[in-house]
Write a structure and sequence with these properties.
- The protein contains 12 helices and no strands.
- It is 70% helix and 0% strand.
- The chain has one domain.
- Helix 2 runs parallel beside helix 11 and helix 4 (62-81) runs antiparallel to helix 5.
- By secondary structure, the protein is mainly α.
């Protein structure tokens, strides 16, 4: 039963990734007074883009062609490592440090693709994503350090039960949640860190690295963006959300949580404006500082 629930969870997380992104985009549009796209728009765009002719810049190398596949593969492995059903078989890999490595690996290939596109904007976006990554990783480690203090291991599955068994004060828990929320917006390229709807060259980051892609390469990149959003949201709910008695009940709860998170994300973006690039260092420092403070309070036993 555990194997079946986990496999179904992985398939649903990947298959519904464009839907959850579509929900966020639709909610954001409605909140801004626009009709917006259908929640199923992501599937239509992927199908149409995949059928188009694929071309590459004249001066790009094999790195440009390989990057979308490597980026998507890293994120698919990330989804595979997340225990969507709450409990996984003993032989199932689910290490938190491996998830961090895969997210950094995906960011590395996105940056390479931007630089290898032989275009000005690709290099600009790659530079900004690399700079952003140096602030995202400490903040993410600090936020999850709270759980490490409680469980004393980096396996994902025991983290949520350890959190429920321990008497964790509302202040450290709230700080860890806030730090992870900062990380989520930065890692997925959402407002106020980046605007996924713009093609303005002076502001875009993630869009700049895929500007030269088309055809199946662009479809892979678009799917990778949707899968990344689902993985980051799901990883947060594994240890923030409640745990139910059976794996199938947990799986259903995760799907509801992902839907609620997508709606909340769209609402939040509709009320946010993009920060200036030089303000992002303050944003990331704040995210890391909040996580480090939560880690210190839990490890020292303060405010429990």
């Amino acid at each position: 039963m555990l194997w079946g629930a986990q496999i179904v969870g992985v398939v649903l997380a990947i298959g519904l990734a464009p839907f959850f992104m579509g929900v966020a985009q639709t909610v954001k549009a409605r909140r801004q007074g626009r009709h917006g796209p259908s929640v199923w728009q992501g599937y239509w765009v992927l199908a149409k883009t995949w059928r188009k002719e694929t071309t590459v810049p004249e001066y790009s190398s094999w790195v440009f062609r390989l990057a979308p596949s490597m980026s998507l593969a890293a994120l698919l492995l990330t989804v595979l490592l997340i225990p969507w059903s709450g409990t996984v078989p003993s032989a199932w890999p689910h290490d938190l440090l491996a998830v961090f490595f895969l997210l950094a690996f995906e960011r590395f290939w996105v940056g390479l693709a931007g630089m290898d596109s032989a275009g000005t904007f690709g290099g600009l976006g790659a530079s900004r994503i690399a700079t952003l990554g140096t602030g995202i990783e400490p903040a993410m480690l600090a936020a999850f350090g709270v759980l490490w203090v409680l469980s004393r291991q980096t396996a994902i599955q025991p983290l949520a039960p350890a959190l429920m068994r321990q008497s964790l004060g509302i202040i450290p828990w709230g700080l860890a949640v806030l730090s992870y929320a900062f990380v989520l917006l930065a890692e997925t390229g959402r407002l106020p860190v980046d605007n996924p709807d713009t093609h303005l060259e002076l502001t875009m980051m993630h869009e700049a690295t895929v500007l030269e892609y088309n055809g199946r390469f662009l479809a892979q990149s678009q799917l990778a963006i949707a899968v990344k959003l689902t993985a980051i949201l799901g990883l947060g709910w594994i240890w923030l959300g409640p745990q139910l008695a059976t794996p199938w009940a947990n799986l259903g709860l995760r799907l509801v949580e992902l839907l609620v998170s997508s709606v909340a994300l769209g609402w939040l973006e509709s009320r946010s404006t993009k920060l200036r690039y030089f303000q992002l260092s303050t944003y990331l420092t704040m995210a890391a500082g909040i996580g480090i403070l939560a880690f210190y309070l839990v490890s020292s036993g303060g405010l429990n």
